[in-house]
Amino acid sequence: MRVHDGPGPTVIYLPGLHGDWGLIGAFRRALGERVRFVEFSYSKEELSLEALAELVHAELTAKGVTSGWILGQSFGSQVGWALVARGFAADGVVLAGGFVRHPWPWGAVLFRAILAAPAWLIGPGYRAYTAVCNAAARRGADEARELMAFAENRGPAEWRASAWRLSLIARADPRPVARAFRSPVHYLGGMIDPLVPWPLVTRWLQRECPGYKGEAIIRAADHNVLGSSPRESAERVLAWLGVR
Fold it and tell me: How confident is the model at residue 196 (pLDDT cuts 50, 70, 90)?
């Protein structure tokens, strides 16, 4: 857990399948120190969502963080709902490419099978994908270097941990938690998202989640909306938090 102090509300960033804060730097900088930004890296052990949420809750409590906005990126949304289920006083939830029950659990199973390929095969493919995304997003040199360094540091332990998290997604069903949650819930997504079908997610939220306040879909962004469009994502999140 790392804390970046700021004068505004507390934002608790829970990362996606990659499991750490390696992809959040550009978004954090775009916030401009206007919030208290708390970020996590997960254990690589095969822990349940409840165990992960317990560890997150313990770290927050140790630092005196008793409430805040949950920013759940993809898989991190599942940790976030588990944190709410534990009784954490969430002021609101932002699902960044996140979901409640994944609309296509079989997709997580299929993706996990792909990650069962040898790391020497997955690694180069992921680095090539990152390079293409960098070029498409026209990122600055510093930001592109940061993301490529992240891609190059993915090893067998990271891919195994990601595969385990996919199995958690396939089994998880936090719909009862979301149905009972009355604080604000917002959805932030990228228009190009082959991993999470956001129209199905937002439709369910509109129908079932009493706290749902609406979505923002960024046209030029992909599934990693916080990384592929950090400045526009930051503007949206700050507006939802009422921060200028």
Answer: very high
